[in-house]
């Protein structure tokens, strides 16, 4: 394991085998979710069929033909502002606590060695250091032979601060069990008399932003069939269990599916109505990782569609360019799920 950005070497109690297991698991999950089409066995809780916009091309002919239902779909897209709010980070302990809880629910692990490990893409070193600086404790490490870094917090004062920040804000039962079994047994944490999950269904806070940093992906899907190019916008989150995905589906709309070959559930926004809700959320609660850039490109594609510029060849080419530049540096971004 390499030390990252000149951090001095410290005694490292955390099991190297467990770190490898956690990192490999996360990277596998990300490689499955970052915009790659996979044939799914079935879809659960499907509220409506996926909305697509079809661009029918004819060789050496400039005009484009659209079917009536596609025109109606385009006309029914709800408009969003073309302006993007100034990018802000969570400042208050309340906001940062929800963000951190979501991030840990997605990419964190509390070990028996009294340590918290959070995994990041190597592109997101600045985010790892932001979390470290906000907490005031921790060390950042580069994972050898992996496009990943980890933030490790082993100082008990730092762990106590983390627990106070995320108490009653986390939503993962797995993380709750790790905290109860691996951390709270120690007498140092006796000041925490009760540690609980957040059972509130309201996601109007930073939790989903933090959770999406770990397991979310923004996808522009272009599928060509019979000289027609279908344009789809999808926000997707993959998980081994569906409980948190159901919560997200009820908040944003969309559907939940299951990939049998990977034994994985996924949430997909699928419709433009859900896409608007996704935009409304992330315009308020900003992503802090490199995924924010992907979100802005995804948002631009939505604006092109709402303004009906996708009906032109130049508009479609802009969407194609946006798609090609999304996830370009992300280790999880494998192309070709079409």
UniProtKB/TrEMBL annotation:
The keyword Calcium is assigned to this record: no
GO molecular function (one): endonuclease activity
Domain spans labelled Homing endonuclease LAGLIDADG: 208-302
KW Mitochondrion (keyword) present: yes
Keywords annotated in UniProt: Endonuclease, Hydrolase, Mitochondrion, Nuclease
Domain of life: Eukaryota
Gene3D superfamilies hit by this protein: Homing endonucleases
UniProt GO cellular component terms: mitochondrion
TM segment ranges: none
A Pfam family that the UniProt record links to this protein: LAGLIDADG_1
Purpose: Mitochondrial DNA endonuclease involved in intron homing.
Protein's name according to its UniProt entry: LAGLIDADG endonuclease
Organism of this sequence: Taiwanofungus camphoratus (Poroid brown-rot fungus)
Record lineage: Eukaryota, Fungi, Dikarya, Basidiomycota, Agaricomycotina
Encoding gene per record: orf338
């Amino acid at each position: 394991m390499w030390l990252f950005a000149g951090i001095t070497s410290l005694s490292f109690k955390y099991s190297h085998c467990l770190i490898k297991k956690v990192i490999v698991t996360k990277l596998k999950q990300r490689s499955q979710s970052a915009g790659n089409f996979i044939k799914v066995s079935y879809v659960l809780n499907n509220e409506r069929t996926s909305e697509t916009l079809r661009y029918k091309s004819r060789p050496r002919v400039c005009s484009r033909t659209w079917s009536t239902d596609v025109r109606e779909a385009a006309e029914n897209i709800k408009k969003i502002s073309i302006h993007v709010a100034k990018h802000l980070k969570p400042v208050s302990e309340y906001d940062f606590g929800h963000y951190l809880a979501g991030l840990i629910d997605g990419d964190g692990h509390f070990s028996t060695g009294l340590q918290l490990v959070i995994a990041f893409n190597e592109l997101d070193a600045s985010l790892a250091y932001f979390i470290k600086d906000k907490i005031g404790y921790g060390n950042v490490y580069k994972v050898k032979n992996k496009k990943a870094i980890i933030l490790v917090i082993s100082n008990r004062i730092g762990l106590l601060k983390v627990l106070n920040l995320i108490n009653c804000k986390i939503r993962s039962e797995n993380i709750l069990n790790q905290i109860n079994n691996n951390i709270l047994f120690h007498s140092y944490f006796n000041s925490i008399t009760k540690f609980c999950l957040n059972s509130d269904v309201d996601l109007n806070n930073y939790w989903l932003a933090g959770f999406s940093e770990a397991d979310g992906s923004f996808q522009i899907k272009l599928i060509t069939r019979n000289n027609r190019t279908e344009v789809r916008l999808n926000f997707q989150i993959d998980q081994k269990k569906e409980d948190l995905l159901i919560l997200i589906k009820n908040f944003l709309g969309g559907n939940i599916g299951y990939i049998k070959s990977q034994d994985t559930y996924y949430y997909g926004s699928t419709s433009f109505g859900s896409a608007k809700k996704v935009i409304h959320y992330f315009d308020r609660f900003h992503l802090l990782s490199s995924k924010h850039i992907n979100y802005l490109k995804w948002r631009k594609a939505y604006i092109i569609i709402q303004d009906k510029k996708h009906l032109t060849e130049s508009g479609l080419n802009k969407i194609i360019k946006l798609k090609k530049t999304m996830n370009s540096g992300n280790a999880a971004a494998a192309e070709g799920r079409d």
